[in-house]
User: Fold this.
Amino acid sequence: MEAYKNKWRTIFFHVMVWVVLFSFPYILSYDTDQAFKHVLAFSWIPLFLYMVVFYLNYLYLADKLFFSNQKVVFIISNVVLVILMIGIREGLTEYFFPRPEREGGSGPPRTMVYYVQTLSFLVPIVWAVALRTMERLIRSEVEKKEAANQQLKSDLQHLQYQLQPHFFFNSLNNIYALVDISPEKAKSTIHSLSKLMRYLLYDTRTELVPLAMEIEFLVKYIELSKLRLTDKTTVEYHFPKPDASVKVPPLLFISLIENAFKHGVSAQEESKIMFEITFDDAKIVFKGENTDFPKTHTDESGSGIGLRNLKDRLELLYPNKHYFHTEVESGHFHVTVEIPL
Assistant:
């Protein structure tokens, strides 16, 4: 639809330019038959011939020859075309105003006349090639942007699909830890996991989801993860209750919560995990804090795929418009994410 509108805008622009060019000589002429003949012979006929040269180059020769590495053929074609146009112009001018015999060779030399006319016919050729070049550059930029957008969607989809099995893997680890300790809790956890997976599979297919729905998902995941914790770990979270108009990309913060439960829990030492989400009219801010218990080199569960995933998604979704910062201070891991609304 947009391409159709652009096509008609271009046609309208061309028509208006030629209407103006053809109108000026007539408007500025005297209201006499002789004046009209002058306008016809010395303005309208040359303009019409310029228009023929322009559109032959604009619609055909530029694309077929000039941009197809056949520049020699392009030059030869235009030389023949210009000679033909000069011949037609001279013939029509002679028809309306026969050139009297000038005694003593008065008037400009014919070579000078032909030279000036040749230069005048070069103008529409240059304009046609220049305009076609500009249009090709614009079209190329549009195609690059469309390709980049398609690649962006593909990359985001890939990252989201990558996150789902990662999330499922971590959840199964939680359930596995409960099977021997509390079979009833394990059953309840499996039921909760099924609800979470339903959200993952069906509700996250759109580019944006309500923040309220995403927060509900985060709360369920936190409560599910708390089931395998001991009394030595304290978990706090402070999430707002936004209305449905506030939306975010799905599964944007889950990696941070997974990371906290993976690296912030110890069976022997006191542990603390805290999450907070705030928002205003301009941005959404997620803050997380947890005690830091670095994984050993032999522990593959600490591969860090979640944080890399989040970093890649933020770069794709909000290039140069987001804030992502992590640091370890006094044995605590801190993370802050800010995204625009």
Summary: The chain is about 65% helix and 15% strand. Strands lie at 209-210, 233-238, 247-248, 271-279, 283-291, 323-329, 332-340.
